[in-house]
Structures are given as C-alpha cells and as structure tokens.
Specification:
heterodimer, A: mainly alpha, Ammonium transporter fold, two-stranded antiparallel ribbon, 16 helices, 2 strands, B: alpha+beta, Alpha-Beta Plaits, 4-stranded antiparallel beta sheet, 2 helices, 20% helix
Chain lengths: 421, 120
C-alpha cells in the first residue's frame, strides 16, 4: 500500500495506538508468567524464555522483512512486497499509513507486537522438551513464511480474505487459529514428554500458580490494547467509537468465560480452581478477538459463556486422545479462535449484519472460508517447517536433558534458589 | 534426653504449637525447629486438579517438627503433638503423620558451652 503524508496526524488516534502497542507487548511477559507458572520447577525459565526470545527474534524479523511481506504492495492478494519497506528504509517518520491519520511507524509497531505474541502462543504446546535452537529458527521462519502472508490475506487492504469480506477484528484467524493449529501440529511432531509416553496419568504439576494468575491478569489488561487498538484498522480516519465497542466486548467476554469455565469445572471435577478461572479468562479473550468491534456487549457475554465451556471441553478431549499439548495452546487458542471466528458471522451487527440480526448466512459463509484458509495454511506451513527444522537440528532435546530439566541443561540456570540465603 | 521428630500436616502446625506451648512453657523448656518436607506414607498422596484432571502427586508436602526434651517431658510432648496434629475430631485420618522418638546423646548450647540437660 503506497501512502503519502497527505492526511494530517490525529493526536487522539496516535496516542491510543502508541499505548495499545505497548499494551500488546506487555502481553508477552504476561504470557511468559501464565505459561511459566504451569510447568514443573525445572522448566520455568526455559518456558518463560520462549516468550521473551520471541520479543527478540520477531522484534528484529518484523522490522527487517515481516512488515514488508504482510503490508507491502500486494501480489495478487497473496503476499506483500515493497523494496522500500525492507528494513523500513523508505518509511519516513512523517509518513501516515494508508487513509489512517496515524504515523505508519506506529501502525508498524502495533502490528509487530501481534507478530511477536503469535509464535510465543505456540510455545505453550511445546514446553518442557523443545530444543531452543530449533525454536529460534522455527519462529523466525514461521513468522516470515506462515504469519506474514496470513496477516496480508486478512488485514492488508488488498488481501484476498479482506477483499472477500472476512471479518477478523483483532486476530482470531491470523493470531489464534494460526497459533493453535500450529501448536497442535508441532505437539504431534514433537511427541509427548517422557513421563507421558504410554500412560495418561503421569504426575506433572504446576510449580507456581500465583505466577500463572499474575500472567492471566496481565493478559487481560494487555488485551484491551490488542482488541480496542485494532479499531484503528476499521475506523477511518480516526479511531474512537469502535474502539469503545471493542473495549466493552473484550471485558464482557473475558468475565463471562471466566465464570462459565469455573462453573463447568466445578460441575465436572468437583472444585472451582484458580487455574480454571485464569484459563477461562484467556479463553474468553481469545474468542472475542475476531468479534470485538463487530458484536454487541450482550452478544459478547454469550460468546464468552460458550468459549469457557467449549475450551474446557477441548482440554478434556486432549486428555482423552493423548496429544501432549503441554499447556493447551490448541484447546484454548485454536478452539477458542475457531469458535470466535465462526460466531462472528452469526453475532455481528456492524459493519454488516450477521445470521442472527439479518437471517442472512452470507457472512457466516465468509467466516468459514477465512477459518478454513487459516487452518489449512498454518497447518501445512507448520508441518513443512517443523519437519525441516527437525531434519536440521532435531526439535527435541535429548532424553537426559529433558529429565534434568531445560533450565539447567539448556540455560545453565535454575528458577528457584529460595532455600539459600 | 530424647529427640522427638514429628511429621504433621502443614495446616496443623499452628494447632500443634498451641498444644506444645501449653505443656512445655513452664521453666522455659519450649523450643522447636520446623522445616518443610515432602514424602508419602500410607495415604499415597492427595488429589490435585489440573484443568479438570485429577492428579495424585507422588510426594505430598508435610511439616517436620524437631524437639529435644529431657526425659520427664517426653510423654506430654508426644501427647501434645498427637492432640494438635490429629484431624477429623478425635478419630484421626490417614495422612495425619507420625512421631519418631530417638535417644539423644548430647546437647551443647553454643553461646555458653553448657552441655547435657541444662543446655536443652
């Protein structure tokens, strides 16, 4: 998309986008805490590292080439490219983005945070056994080959899914379906942790749930930037009313899902757990992501309740089929993203009326196309890249390293020395 | 002199301390060391939940209380620990813990160099 600084910068929109970009980045250490608390004590650092290192690797990749491929001039709606966007060399700080009244650099930073958190979400399925070097190469390739084109399809003005009219407000397909499906594929390629080979009920307990709860809180907080910040993409020329709508639906869905997960867990397992409410919060936030600026707060309550129940069910399904998706990246992000993206076509009222408001299934059909495209593209892309990296270095650490824990065997550190003065 | 080592539920530590204080406070003989331990006995672990799945940990957290006492205090110390650590009324439950009593050869108070019963 060629743009010139023909429109004046809007202070309100620009300020909100700067804040939103920082909020989305805060979700990454939030995710590190959320995931880090759930693994065993010997793997807390390596698990948190997966999120932190994504800030480093994708932080560089996005500026170098990622943004160029996602938002450069479109090649048949499939992928972007623009020589001037390589390493952002042609982006003057005065230049605005498209028809928006915000500097393009602010838009680039905002989008870059999404590119960072998406591969970090995948890492939840791979915790406690993934080789660091393979992870680094994988996420760099994945962000370039899988994520950037998908973001182009859905969010660039000339992307084929965008032109088709698929609604994905803040990344139900691009972020959550892509991360969830990729997580499932990699978990299958990687195989279960050694304790889970051949038996279902091994003893793998979380080391520090207070960290997980802190992380869930930071994710909820940051998600306001994730969703309400995304209003800038649909609201032209300045973001305002839709940002408020997305803020309200984000709040509604997270709260409703926290409640429904807690209640269904109490009914199913006999106790309402803190990990349950934390998981419910995230499930609701995921499900409302594609719908945030398109549905009413009341509809967000319904979407939230459904996502808590459905994602809880997906976790139980995982136990039954025996896939070792360590921290349920697929059950929460994949399934929650699918649910949200599909129900967007049912519940949406703005800018188009969905099935419920109009009786017209057209938008639902478009949503299904978007979902299918994201599932197939991320599934196949991840399978190919996963196989490649496995061939080159092996995706897994050795059995001995896995037994010792990745903190000491990979990083030469331990997360806890609480007993020593 | 005896060394009394008791393994109790962490949540019963307060009750055990109250009972001990009641019998050992006279003549300022109430001293104890507490640490956190993990292990298992007949109870084979309590159930913990992880996203709807019940998991039995191999090791459960317990509190270890170590007290050195002169011979005349042994029985009331043991009784006090039992009173404080037993759950579910007087009936008790599997997992309430155990008390070990061993002979104690020597005690030295580092500050003064005193030895034996006076140092305890």
């Amino acid at each position: 998309m060629e743009s010139t600084s023909s429109v004046a910068i809007d202070a309100g929109s620009t300020a909100w986008m700067l804040v939103s970009s920082a909020l989305v980045l805060l979700m990454v250490p939030g995710l590190a805490l959320f995931y880090g608390g759930m693994v065993r004590r010997k793997n807390i650092l390596s698990t948190m590292m997966h999120s932190f290192v994504a800030m480093a690797v994708i932080g560089v990749q996005w500026i170098s080439i990622g943004y160029c491929l996602a938002f450069g001039s479109s090649w048949h709606g499939v992928v972007g490219f623009d020589p001037s966007l390589v390493a952002l060399q042609g982006v003057d700080h005065l230049k605005t983005y498209g028809d928006k009244r915000i500097p393009e650099l602010v838009f680039i930073m905002f989008q870059g945070k999404f590119a960072i958190i998406t591969p970090a979400l995948i890492s939840g399925a791979l915790a406690e056994r993934l080789r660091l070097r393979s992870y680094l190469v994988f996420i760099a390739l994945w962000a370039t080959v899988v994520y950037a084109p998908l973001a182009h399809w859905v969010w660039a003005a000339d992307g084929w899914l965008f032109k088709l009219g698929v609604l994905d407000f803040a990344g139900g397909t691009v972020v959550h379906i892509a991360a969830g499906v990729s997580a499932l594929v990699l978990a299958l390629l990687l195989g279960p942790r050694r304790e889970l080979r051949g038996r279902a009920a091994a003893v793998l307990l979380p080391n520090n749930l207070p960290l997980t709860l802190t992380g869930a809180g930071l994710l909820w907080f940051g998600w306001f930037g994730f969703n309400a910040g995304s209003a800038v993409a649909v609201e032209t020329p300045v973001a305002g009313a839709v940002a408020g709508l997305a803020f309200a639906t984000t709040q509604a869905a997270a709260a409703a899902a926290a409640l429904s997960w807690m209640l269904v867990e109490r009914w199913h397992s006999g106790k309402a757990t803190t990990l349950g409410i934390a998981s419910g919060i995230v499930a609701g936030l995921v499900a409302v992501t594609p719908a945030a600026g398109h549905i009413s707060p009341a509809a967000a309550l319904v979407l939230g309740v459904l996502s808590g129940v459905v994602c809880y069910g997906a976790v139980q399904w995982k136990h039954r089929v025996g896939v070792d998706d360590t921290l349920d990246a697929f059950a929460v992000h994949g399934v929650g993203g699918l649910l949200g993206a599909v129900l967007t076509g049912v519940l949406c009222v703005t800018p188009v009326a969905g099935l419920l408001a109009s009786g017209d299934p057209t938008q639902l059909g478009k949503q299904l196309v978007g979902v299918l495209a994201a599932v197939v593209w991320s599934g196949l892309g991840t399978f190919a890249l996963g196989k490649l990296v496995d061939k080159l270095w092996g995706l897994r650490v050795s059995d001995q390293q896995e037994r010792d824990g990745l903190d000491i065997s990979t990083h030469g550190e331990r997360g806890y020395h609480l007993e020593q003065a | 002199m005896k060394l009394i080592v008791a393994i109790v539920r962490p949540e019963r530590l307060d009750a055990v301390q109250e009972e001990l204080q009641r019998v050992l406070d006279e003549e300022d003989r109430y001293r104890l060391t507490v640490d956190s331990v993990e292990g298992h006995g007949a109870q084979a672990g309590e159930v913990e939940l992880f996203r709807g799945r019940a998991i039995r940990p191999r090791l459960v957290p317990r509190t270890r209380i170590t007290i050195a006492v002169n011979d005349s205090y042994v029985d009331r110390t043991i009784d006090a620990i039992v009173r404080g650590a037993r759950t579910e009324g007087a009936a008790g439950a599997v997992g309430d813990g155990k008390i070990f009593v061993q002979p104690l050869e020597e005690v030295v108070r580092i500050r003064t160099g005193e030895r034996g019963e006076r140092a305890i």
